[in-house]
Amino acid sequence: MENTTNNSKTRSILTIAAFLLVMFGFVILNRAITPPDVSQSERRQLAKLPTLTLQTLANADFMDGFEDFAADSFAFRENLRTLRAFAVLDVFRMSDKSGLYRADGGAGKFEPVNDKSILQAADKIAKVAETLGDVNIYYAVVPDKNIYVAPQTPGYEPARVAALLAERLGAYTAIDLTDTLGGDAYYRTDLHWDQPRIAPVVDKLGAAMNFAPSADFETRTLGEFNGVYTGQLALPLTPDTMTYLENSATVGATTQYFDIASNGFLDGDMYDLEAFKGGDPYDLFLRGAQPLITITNPDAQSNRELYLFRDSFSSSLAPLLAPYYSRITLIDLRYIDSRVLDQYVKFAPDSDVLFLYSSQILNNSAILNVS
User: Which domain holds residue 276?
Assistant: First the structure.
């Protein structure tokens, strides 16, 4: 009996010792290994160690910040993320990991409709539209990838979103793009659409906005890339291939970007080939996120102008519209406040205005700077 008790105590001591050894081992590793500033796979800044002061202790900011820092700086973090994703999707056979799922060799993310945010987006669009003067106003929603790739899963509902927007935007012309695309129009490893596959979107816009698409484009191929879902899911996926379309309009047009530092416009490129090698390959198209961009085409089919209120999807769409408008102004209300817009953009009478937003923006409309 005494031997059994001694053995039990010995096992308990060894268990505690092993646990402490593992814990202290991770502490030493976390001190020895300097975490990166940026997670390349997730394309985001990692949390920094918060400043310890009496105030940050009192209001719990330090503990909240330290929790984020500890999670982001943990040794072998990327390996553990992959192990967790494998366990969730392949061992336990769950349908998704934090909203991310695999489908047809690629991945996606569920985007259920946020009614409150959709209505808020509509109110913001209406508020901006009321200030634009005598122009032709249209609005459309970028079809969500999930409705084609994973229609059986809970996600975005185009008809429901259309009804919500129509409640507040009935005075303007809606353009339904849902029937123009399919799952193959999107990158498998990313949320964005693939430029050479969105000609039907241009056709549908042309039919509604009174321009006749007729331009021919040549396809250019840059190489393979991994979209944002590869890093977020933390599992290997077959890379996508980056291609873009070029013709005399995309080559001959003048492209300018608003530079915050100089408070003016600087010359740029329709396609930034160097950006393809950077953190987000999709920045190839018009340098990615910019508050204001202008595309001027002196050889356009008309003298009409287009003002495109947009998110990232329009970066690859706008070059395909260049043959039909003498000037296209892209406006991203995530990066410029609508209250100062008239200081930089003058809306020409009888021009076209298109509000084109994806489900990600409509579901998070607080990021649109309209007040």
Answer: 113-367
